[in-house]
Fold this sequence. Notes:
Layout: E1 2-8, H1 14-20, H2 27-32, E2 36-40, H3 50-61, E3 68-72, E4 75-76, E5 87-88, E6 91-92, H4 93-103, E7 106-110, H5 112-116, E8 129-130, E9 134-135, E10 138-139, E11 156-158, H6 165-176, H7 206-211, H8 239-242, E12 280-281, E13 285-286, H9 295-312
Parallel strand pairs: 1-2, 1-3, 3-7, 7-11
Antiparallel strand pairs: 4-8, 5-6, 9-10, 12-13
Helix pairs in contact: 1-6, 3-4
This protein binds iron/sulfur cluster (SF4) (2 copies).
Amino acid sequence: xxxxxxxxxxxxxxxxxxxxxxxxxxxxxxxxxxxxxxxxxxxxxxxxxxxxxxxxxxxxxxxxxxxxxxxxxxxxxxxxxxxxxxxxxxxxxxxxxxxxxxxxxxxxxxxxxxxxxxxxxxxxxxxxxxxxxxxxxxxxxxxxxxxxxxxxxxxxxxxxxxxxxxxxxxxxxxxxxxxxxxxxxxxxxxxxxxxxxxxxxxxxxxxxxxxxxxxxxxxxxxxxxxxxxxxxxxxxxxxxxxxxxxxxxxxxxxxxxxxxxxxxxxxxxxxxxxxxxxxxxxxxxxxxxxxxxxxxxxxxxxxxxxxxxxxxxxxxxx
Length: 318
Ligand code: SF4
Ligand code: SF4
């Protein structure tokens, strides 16, 4: 048996909804086939009132060993670091987080709010929200940059708004089956299996990206990078390889990728003009270019290809 406790802080519960949509394996199969014992989950747990305290206290005291502590939502530290804005089971949630993270073999942060602070932590951040071990790109967060769980792992970050069900279930299965030695984390503590390739891998608009054909919302046959702010070339996630509901993805439905698995999310702190819009220099050159590209080279290549395509256009001026 692998004991798991799941708690929520500043959360909309979107990651729980996504988790309940898991299919391979489903949440039921996690329990029946992989031996994951959910000691408590605020949405699906049957415990109420004092029973919740009992479950949590048993884990903190070590009476019931805790293998996985999952946290969803931001860590609310306000007001003034007291955490009293988010009370749970007779205590500020931050006290439960500290205690449970201290006894768990693995700590898993699910969703952008738990990983990097997410939308809740956008300035002025009145709830003093942060992520478990990051605030945006800065390591530290609530647990501090040196935190390691009992098994010697930092917080395992599964970002996304919400995270894809496979990203959550696969990490739980790896822990439950003792295969964590095969799991590698990237520089932001994300499992490399899901967060190495870019969203652009598998996007059906990739040819339009190369040909610089501009697309728009819901419009077939163009790339969303040039006008409507698609972040597919700067965002590491497997959305276009494993698809959502095994059926589609944002960019396949011609909606721009918002870059929700990257620690900057929401990018530019939702400043006016930064959402669903490609920000440009001189109204022409994209301010952000694909990860790994040299800006000047990218602009030069874009201009050359634009000139070539203009040259190929029929002359209609006569
Ligand atoms: S920029 Fe977006 S829409 Fe264009 S190819 Fe990349 S992922 Fe697809
Ligand atoms: S396509 Fe982009 S915004 Fe949508 S879920 Fe994937 S990473 Fe997040």
